[in-house]
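Entry
Fold in C-alpha cell form

___
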Amino acid sequence: MITPIKVRDVKDIEQINHIVSRYDFDIWIHGKSGMADAKSILGLFVLKLNEPLTLVIPDDVNHKKLFKELEPFLVIG
C-alpha cells in the first residue's frame, strides 16, 4: 500500500520514526531523493523534506492502527 505523507521538519521525522518502530512489518518512505526504512532514524535524514514523499507498507498487513497513529502526517484527499 502506498499513501502520500508530509514531513515538515526534524520533529516530524522523530515522531514518525517513534510510531513506526512499534510495528513488526516493513515500512518505507520513498521520495525523489531516495528511499528510507522508516524505522531507521538515520535513513530518514537522507530524504529531502521539501519533495513529495510516500509511505509504503505491504499490502497484506492491517494498516488501520498505523494510519490512525500517523494521521497528522498523512496527506488525504
